[in-house]
Amino acid sequence: MSTAPQPSPETAVQSPKNSPADAVRLGSKAEVAIVTVTVLVLIALSGIYIPKASYSYFVVLAAFAIFCLFLGRWVNGRPLGIFVGDRNLMSLSRFQMVLWTVFILSAYLTMCLYRLRNGTPDPLAVAMDWHLWALMGISTASMVGSPLLLGNKTQSEAPPDAVKKAAAQLSEDASDIKQNSAGRLYGNKSVNDASFADIFQGDEIGNTAYIDVAKLQMFFFTFVSLWVYSAATLKIFNGDNYSAMPAFSDGLVALLGVSHAGYLTSKIVDHTHAN
What we know:
It contains 9 helices and no strands. The protein is mainly alpha-helical and about 280 residues long.
């Protein structure tokens, strides 16, 4: 019986470490099932056995956060992998979208659990102010709109002198930068190279070594908004009326809208020029 020729060590292709193809090694089917069921059971029991809604809120919030961390590890081997985009960089739009989803969903679910516990008719009928929908719409628009606005920049190559300048500033090899980038957009070679600092840096080869002020502004606005929202949520949970989610003011929604508009506009501008 003939056997297929085996590749020599010199020609054998090695799979990249912690690649999506190796996800089964990072999270077995049993582990995925156990963690998922544990999170769901923990959330359900928090509404039954925890006497105060504010305590239950923290449990639900922690459960969702833990699941997101495991999800990142299962997919690409990093707990913060849920924030990493297709260029192996941590994304600010992903970061803020995940945070808003976790915080708002945790508050809503906690209210529903305690309405169900108290025998409230139609426990899922928790009112949501239009400002909250506007906030989620703004966050979603930023996450979806970012790759669309950057799409044209993947079709043109960065000038050689811009690549050399970035290589000198980042202490990287110019050929590696050119190989890992998507047109004018900077990229990392591996998911393992992604860092939290990515969310503050420019997207292009020409400005990736600098802080993007529009991103910094949106990060701080997101942080402040989450802090205000969490305080308003806890105030409701310290009472006994779980009929409506906390509402944002017109001013706060306007500030977030301006911040996201600046963030998206900065992606249109060409930051990679030839000297």
